């Protein structure tokens, strides 16, 4: 299957700082990328959908000014958690879907996730 | 009604038996169906996808789709302790660009 690389895998930061998470599709071009958040023992929650070269579409209740998403190329999307607070501590997972090739038009592949802990 | 429904479990199955995981969906026009496995503390991993009615087999895994009943299932033969995980059913609806995930079924394979 297609490979999605997510970095960093874990980050610990102080309250008020910003954290950037990168998501890369390594062997296919990701026309669409998705960002999810998952709290312990809970379901995946979609935060936003981004298409290359356009603004992200945020799900209801997700603050777009707090969670900045950039999808500047077909292989890279970034999520920046601005002014992070302890309640932002969670497992953040990116997912990518390709147009053609290994990624396929219908299949979403997931990165390994980033565990964010805000002190 | 949730768009994609799964029993949360836990579903406990003895080692070597067949584990059967079920999922129903509400959008009758849905076209694509996926099963993901998620180990605790890890991200989801795609196991299988199915587009057409009937069965699709891959090793010990069989996905079954019944569009008339709006039902998709995953069978795991010869269950192993390493199969213990949460299994997520996901569906792409008729007009959606994103897939909708169920809340997952926790499967436990007991030795």
Structure described in brief:
Chain A is mainly beta and 119 residues long.
Describe this structure in words.
The complex is a heterodimer of chains A (119) and B (111). With 119 residues, chain A is an all-beta fold. In chain A, 0% of the residues lie in helices and 53% in strands. Chain A has strands spanning 4-7, 10-13, 19-25, 30-38, 45-51, 57-58, 67-73, 76-81, 90-98, 108-110, 114-118. Residues 100-104 of chain A have low confidence and may be disordered. Chain B has 111 residues and is mainly beta. Chain B is 0% helix and 54% strand. In chain B, strands 2, 4, 5, 9, 10 and 11 form a six-stranded mixed β-sheet that branches. A five-stranded antiparallel β-sheet of chain B has the order 1-3-8-7-6, with no helix packed on it. The radius of gyration of chain B is 13 Å and the shape is globular. The mean pLDDT of chain B is 93.
Layout: helices, strands, pairs:
The complex is a heterodimer of chains A (119) and B (111).
Chain A: E1 4-7, E2 10-13, E3 19-25, E4 30-38, E5 45-51, E6 57-58, E7 67-73, E8 76-81, E9 90-98, E10 108-110, E11 114-118
Parallel strand pairs in A: 2-11
Antiparallel strand pairs in A: 1-3, 3-8, 4-5, 4-9, 5-6, 7-8, 9-10, 9-11
Chain B: E1 4-5, E2 11-14, E3 19-25, E4 32-38, E5 45-50, E6 54-58, E7 61-66, E8 71-76, E9 85-92, E10 99-101, E11 105-110
Parallel strand pairs in B: 2-11
Antiparallel strand pairs in B: 1-3, 3-8, 4-5, 4-9, 6-7, 7-8, 9-10, 9-11
